[in-house]
Amino acid sequence: MTPNEHHRNRTRAHSLHALTDHAERAHGVRRSEVHPGDVIVMYTLNSVYKARVLQDGRFAVSGGWFDQRYTTEFITSITGCTWGGKCINREFLGSCGMRVEFGNRVTTSVLQRVVRIPGPVLN
Prior knowledge:
By secondary structure, the chain is an alpha+beta fold. The chain has one domain. Helix content is 25%, strand content 37%. It contains four helices and ten strands, in the order H-H-E-E-E-E-H-E-E-E-E-E-E-H. The strands form three sheets. A five-stranded antiparallel β-sheet has the order 5-4-3-2-10. The chain is globular and about 40 Å long.
């Protein structure tokens, strides 16, 4: 790749067109797919988070940043997924290549894997 092509690709990676294109093709766990009792396990570059879906649309979260500060699950919302800036996809609770932003403004490192475990499987 020439230096000019490299610069073009770097610039495109941060363009609105590139972000919307990625959002259309993205796979992950969508807000519309989860039910109370389900657990979402999010493997990031640096940590593992577990978010249990509650009745009111909030989540009981543990792992990563939360385990460093709390001894029990922390109740918060999941705002959505971001590419690391201010542009956020509110439909995704977890999508590989993106970061999860929680309601308390904590943002994870880049997601490597996301797994949804249906509540009935756990009970």
